[in-house]
Amino acid sequence: MTDAGLRTNPDNYCYRHPDRQSFVLCQRCLRTICTECQTPLPVGVICPECLAASQQAQKEQHRATVTRMPRRRRAVASSTPVVTYTLIGLSSVFYLIGLIPGFGDVVRFYLALNGQFVYAQPWRLFTVVLTHASVWHIVLNMLALWALGRSLEPLLGRGRFLTLYLLSTLGGSVLTVLLAPTTWVVGASGAVWGLLGAMFVIGRHLGANVTAIAVLLGLNLVITFLPGSNIAWQAHIGGGLVGALIGFIFARTRAVRQRKKQIWLLVAVAAGLLALLAIPLFLYR
Hints:
The protein has 12 helices and 2 strands, in the order H-E-E-H-H-H-H-H-H-H-H-H-H-H. By secondary structure, it is an all-alpha fold. The chain has 2 domains: 3-56, no CATH class; 82-283, Rhomboid-like fold (Up-down Bundle). Strands 1-2 form a two-stranded antiparallel ribbon. A hairpin with a 2-residue loop joins strand 1 (39-41) and strand 2 (44-46). Helix 3 (82-99) crosses helix 4 (104-111). The longest helix has 22 residues, at 135-156. Residues 72-77 have low confidence and may be disordered.
């Protein structure tokens, strides 16, 4: 084609600016575009209209994708050990009530654990953690609960932590009823031992250094069996063993798909502990 032909051919001019000659085509619509109308892409250049159409298609595709995505619940994460503080508060309130003249004996009589009363008053299996013998007794137990709860509760979640605390309490109470049915027992030591046992097992499972916890368990074990210590070792051992078992269940059923399995295992532990309470009925009837 001659120079005159190139100049007179309308296909050699920008379709948006007919006075501008160009030999560059849009990679999509194949129309001629001048330098001003060109948008470089990895595969060439495109005209403004094709660019706008491409951007609109991407927006619509994004909106469709977002619409198809399932909405997820927002997880409200909190590191505040609310359950721990609540348990400490309840124990402290009941201890203060017990200091009121005329109320101390009443609180201990209706809340403390004694194997002769649990079959008619089963709440004693749990309310034993709300009663304490002295100010040092409650201070040491609540200090241990505060130290352990601040680490375990955010790790397990409030529901699991409370379950651990209650089942550990039940474990200590059940062993006390089985081995010392006529003994009056007060305090949250069994539940605290359960927290220690769970922390040891979970820490081992996660690969953490549990030497300090092992040393603490060992020292408490020695103190528990010291002559004249007047400590209900049955509650300590029962709570510690159940706490370690619950910690093992939590460690091995962490996945979301194992949630139902975890719940049923916890129910089985509770049912098994309650079933053990039937043993004295057959032995001493």
